[in-house]
Amino acid sequence: MHDIVKDYYGNVLKGSDDLQTNACCTDDNLSSSLKVILSNIHDEVMSRYYGCGLVTPELLAGCHVLDLGCGAGRDCYAMAQMVGETGFVTGVDMTDEQLAVANQHVEYHREKFGYEKANTKFLKGYIEKLDELNIADNSIDVVISNCVINLSPDKHAVLNEIFRILKPGGEIYFSDVYADKRVPAHLKDDPLLYGECLSGALYWHDFENLAKSVGFVEPRLVNSRAITIDNNELATRIEDVNFTSATYRLFKAEGLETDGQNYAQTVTYQGTIIEHEAMLTLDQKNTFIAQQATNISGNTWHTLKQSRFAEHFVFNGDFSKHLGLFAATDEQFDFIDDHAENHASAPSSNNSTSSSCCAPAPAPDQKNKSSCC
Known about the structure:
By secondary structure, this protein is an alpha/beta fold. 25% of the residues lie in helices and 22% in strands. The protein is built from 11 helices and 15 strands. The strands form 4 sheets. Strands 1, 2, 3, 4, 5, 6, 7 and 8 form an 8-stranded mixed β-sheet that branches. It has a 3-stranded antiparallel β-sheet with strand order 13-10-14. The protein has a two-stranded antiparallel ribbon with strand order 9-15.
């Protein structure tokens, strides 16, 4: 499958318009600040972008960020502005044609950003084999990935490597494609369906179990958006499988339990994160209003306490009194267009303030091949 993906993204696709679904799409609904960031990126880099929106976790200043499947470097150059001159961004990709574009513009972006030294570098390699690229254990603050992990033939190896290289308290914040059921084996050999990020997609429940098996005990769904297929031939070939573009965050945290438990703990968000002064959304289940105490599970307590977010919260309580299972809403996935007559068994996702590729579905009069941002 590596050769199929290399050919598809290195030679077949010349631009985003060549894509047959909105699994990978453009950036029509980004915030004004993100639009400014993207406007600083070289046109050639922008034209060779095939991701699903722009995944931008909060609080990146000074972080070392790793982009898996960086392609021509668009997200890397966006992150380079967010981490600032004291941070660093490393991109990994296996496609020579894409990396050639990324490397060609390193100096351009250093000058554009006004940095004394470039804070980006690009490595050729496989995301399943980060050890071969000499990326050390516990060395990365944040991993991002944009519609890429579904293309890997060994997703267990990818997640295992991510867990290895993340610092304690670090996270992977990424968007990818998931299915509402297991994709039939015969579809996985279809090069077009695979290249379009469909037939390599995991059933979402299998993904969460896989993440847990390598150490990401509590996968956190940020949001999801139904994927539309514009090509009738592709839609027929994919049979009855429905797909969503979902954003997850997986933290490397210690002390987590299999299920979130209630210890009568609260946290109070201080409103001190830029562009999130009034409210911070961690995931679908956890939104924090500034200066308001919020009940959380023991797992969320541990996760926040060990993460880069800790200094922005006041923590109240301890683990001395157990009250049972923490009551939280179920995760909600969007597999069917909100405007279709029938909906998947999982209801449509709630809106989220997080920047990702998974905003609500477009209105009926909009084109099917819309931005997933």
